[in-house]
Amino acid sequence: MSVQHRKSSALTLATMLLLLFVIVGCSNTGSGDESSSAASDQTSTKSITMSWPRDIGTMNPHTYNPSQLFAQSMLYEPLISYQKDGKLEPALAESWTISDDGKVYTFKLRQGVKFSDGTPFNAEIVKKNFDAVMKNKDTHSWLGIVGVLDKTEVVDDQTFRMTLTEPYYPVLQDLSVVRPFRFLGEAGFPDDGDTSQGIKEPVGTGPWMLAEYKQDEYAVFKRNPNYWGTAPKVDQITVKIIPDGETRVLAFEKGDLDLIYGEGVISLDAFQQLRDNDEYVTQLSDPVGTRSLLLNSSNPKLSDVRVRMALQQGFNKQAMVEGVTSGLEDPADTVLSKNYPYTNVDLEPITYDVEKSKALLDEAGWKLPAGGTVREKDGQQLDFEMIFDKTDPIQKAMAETIQAEWSELGVKVNLTGLELTVQIKRLKANDFDLYFWYNYGAPYDPHSFINVVASPGFGISETLSALPMKKELDDQVHAALSSTDETKRQELYGSILKTLQEQSAIVPISYIKKTAVYQKKISNFIFPANRDENPFVGIELGNQ
Amino acid sequence: MIGYIGKRMIAIIPIVFIATLVTFALIHISPVDPAEAYLTAAHIYPTPELLAQKRHEFGLDQPLLTQYAHTIQKIAKLDFGTSYLTNKPVWDEVKLRLPATAELAFWSMLLSVFVSIPLGILAAVYKNSWIDMVSRAISYFGASIPQFWLGYLLIFFFAVKLDWLPVEGRGSWENLVLPTITLSLILIAVYTRLLRSSVLEQLQETYVQYARTRGIRERVIMLKHVLKIAISPLITGMGMSMGKLLTGTIIVEQVFSWPGFGRYFVDAIFNRDIPVIQCYVFLAACLFIVCNLLVDLVQLVMDPRISAKGRAEH
């Protein structure tokens, strides 16, 4: 009896509990959240859904984190926009004049521009925005213009003038960056005018306006009906916040996302897998930055140009870049790619040549001892420490590849994986031998790049410190940045880039590109020339 | 009883104090300067002047003891400072996100209890039968599979391939299904085995034999006697598995884009947003302490000796 009985009662009990669970489970979870319109598929509107790893942030045009650049650029516009190959084109300013001494810039503002709330865009509001930015000068001191801006004036309703303390040619490029010099409408300003503490509402002149927003979940942008330029072809952009790269790919494969866009937003494996699938379109942008390896010449072993040259020639860049990045990056011959202003200079690429490399090391006095594997000179071994970001799989793989290839030359490399913040700290303290470094990209380069060549504290000037012509290089940088003569400026850039190429202290490895993966219904997708801008200009939706 | 609770409540204070001290020490041992992390995260080049200004703003230029005293004073008022990243009060940000995490934890706990109790009982009653095998398989699987991977697998099959459920996000009950299953599987694994072994143990007890000979129905024996005692280790287990639940929410929220506290914490770690990290650790410590206290109280109420007394009076 007992066994039978026991079993039946246990089964009854289990069934009761399971039934209860089903009842509870099927009742509403009571999250209290209404389904968002973002989640509902609206067929009437032309809508594109993309994902972003982080919340779009406060949408304040004058502050940094946690606001996301691409989203800020959807709402707020610059006076001047940065276009392909570094061409500067009129945006909210339709023309500008520069005084002969290079200090006074006068901007004629575009007529008929309105903010998304219908209020007019004029010199008054331009000045108000400039004042708000300059009130927090310290925060923005990284941008060259902030250091040289002396005063701003409203000449008349459509004319705005600014005066610099000294000539600084990249002022126009600086005005094209996504933050902080973009324009918030009157309604967005707090009562005291200090936007650094927050804004009332995100009102801009851009083609989009923020229609719906749920922190950490999604943001919906709709067309700005008052937009002065060509209206976007789609009605709505929905940005879903998906922090995890794999989840992003799964959501895309399910069809929840129309577009995945950005730098490093999906893994290399995932990108390849999507690229090999005919259902989707994948695109790579022009180079947006260079991955370089700094050979710190302030280390005595690296102060000899022959050693630096040997190291650059001693690893197979082409094979490494293709192997590690699966073709997502291109091998780089020069520190700056040629799609920036003034960088289209003829420079001799430094090619892979192991024999030459060994000969150079011998010539520099670093000899392989009998039976040894590491070269020596005056009782010292030729060994270096390479620091890399331990969370970056590409850096790690490249560090290991270079370590293996250089060991063939008799050069010992010790690898140290660090947290990014520690890495940056060591770069600034000049406490490194070999370091993976990236330039800033468009629209910040080439002027930001040459600026760090001459300014201590960024790691680059230190890397170049043992170059015999360092002083001359610094003078050329200062001359270029303050030059008002275009031809002279091009000459100076050419000379600076040539010196850097010949000195081999900054070894170009690869050109980084942005990736885009999208469904076939999307057409006319164009990568923005400005690295930080949004990619929705011109994007269209087919009838699929 | 009241005295016991009072004593336990007082004991909480030094534990919380130690928790804050450990967090504070860990943050200050770390080689990264928060001011620098803040500027780096904000894409601002940290010039020495800016660093000094930020350090002053964050109070990092004061002696450690003063900083710690300030921290304690503030925490006592539930003031965790402002997030380095958003410039908003941390407590407000946390309050916004806690409901999502609580919702996820609640349903996962509920699911695991409702699955593991019948499964554990059945596995014990039908020892070595197929149901026992199934429960064992679920337990091994649940205990060994990495949560993030389980999350991806579930998304792949149920959201992408079968298109039954959404991939990510929060909103409707459908959004809750996959994260809840992901989070509860490990708990189910633990609870089922716990309950199985304790039910088996009780079934060997003489009081069960005695009850049977008295002709008491099996169901009554199970519910009134066996389960009442066998459930005790499960309750302890639930208290002990708070840690699993907490770490689980961090992973699951990341995988399913669930806008909760765990995800916020991950972001804070990456950005070295120290006030947020401090707040998280403090709340986690409090949660552990409260759970332990609750478990002890429940055990006290269910103490078998009390029922033994009851039986003695028969």
Features:
heterodimer, A: 544 residues, alpha+beta, 7-stranded mixed sheet, 4-stranded mixed sheet, disordered N terminus, B: 314 residues, mainly alpha, 80% helix, 0% strand, flat, disordered C terminus
Can you describe this structure?
The complex is a heterodimer of chains A (544) and B (314). Chain A is of the alpha+beta class and 544 residues long. Chain A has 16 helices and 21 strands. In chain A, strands 11, 12, 13, 16, 17, 18 and 19 form a seven-stranded mixed beta sheet that branches. In chain A, strands 1-10-9-8 form a four-stranded mixed beta sheet, with no helix packed on it. A four-stranded antiparallel beta sheet of chain A has the order 4-5-7-6. In chain A, strand 14 (376-377) and strand 15 (380-381) form a beta hairpin. Chain A starts with a helix and ends with a strand. Chain B has helices spanning 2-29, 34-41, 48-57, 64-76, 90-125, 130-144, 147-161, 173-203, 206-213, 218-240, 242-255, 261-271, 274-302, 304-312. The longest helix of chain B has 36 residues, at 90-125. Mean pLDDT of chain B is 84; it is low at 306-314. Chains A and B meet through helix 1, helix 6 and helix 12 of A and helix 2, helix 3, helix 5, helix 7 and helix 10 of B.
